Amino acid sequence: MAKLSASLENNLNKQGFEDLDAEAKSCFAMPLRFTPAVGTILIVIGLLSQSAIWIGIMALVALSGSIWPKGMALDLVYNLVVRRILRSPPLPPTPTPRRFSYLLSTAMLAISALFFYIRAPLLGSIFGGTVAIGGAILTGSLWCLGSWIYRLFLGSKRRVRKSG
């Protein structure tokens, strides 16, 4: 298996995947791009069509990622369909920093949908476009703005001790 660059490994750690060993991180580096890639494409479709309903549905998809620790709806698609085609392991559970990022995306997409609904497409495009840009960055580099914000404000170094 190819060794993961220090930058990509650091980006995965910042999302909360620090408990995975180097081999697992290398194995999951590409599959963990599936959700943000597909999500970004679907958001861009909603932005181009200026559809409040489409963007609202994407807000619900993002919400699924913040409330389901095993992964969002798109992770489920990956685990049930795509990984079987690619013969890869299922995605690991979604760590708290990445779930927080999904919560931020939920809020931004809900606001975007509201602006499209009230016929304020510029504001809808700004809020939704911000999420699309963040998703594109996450897809390309595995750097997650929401996880960065989580670690900045909610503490990154505090770790829950595992009883053993």
UniProtKB/TrEMBL annotation:
Residues 32-153 form the DUF4395 domain. Keywords: Membrane, Transmembrane, Transmembrane helix. The lineage of its organism: Bacteria, Bacillati, Actinomycetota, Actinomycetes, Micrococcales. It comes from Pengzhenrongella frigida. The chain crosses the membrane at residues 38-63, 100-120, 126-153. It holds the Pfam family DUF4395. This is DUF4395 family protein. The keyword rRNA-binding does not apply.
